[in-house]
Predict the structure.
Amino acid sequence: MASRRVLQIGGVVIVAGGGYYLYSAGGNPQVAEKKLEHDMSAAGARLKGQDLSGKEAQKQGEVFAKEAGATLDRTVDTVRGEVRQADKVVTSKMHEAGSKLDQLKDDGSKKLDKAYKDSSKELQQTADSFDKTVNKKTSEAKSGISSWLGFGK
């Protein structure tokens, strides 16, 4: 019964330790493995009283290199995602601007056509009014001249 309990506790400790190393490595199993190897060799050296500074420095360098690589990969992925998002926004804004430009162009064309029609109509009315006035004055002048000469009323 006691050996079963010891196995359970040992299993929990191993799983918790693996989770710790995996979490501290940012989810990268290779970095977690290097950290575990480094910690085990450092603990073994301390127990034996040995100074393994050269090997330890090499292990630590490998751990730092793996961590830096993992961090760089996460940063690059994040930046790529942000660039994709910015590209989507820029594309959307360009389509919006194109639509607004087309709308303004159509509105300007319609306003120009309306102004042309209104101006033509006013010009036509003014010309008709001028013609009527000229015809009326011409008729009056003819009747006045005719009456002076004795041809009219």
The chain has a mean pLDDT of 80. The chain is about 90% helix and 0% strand.
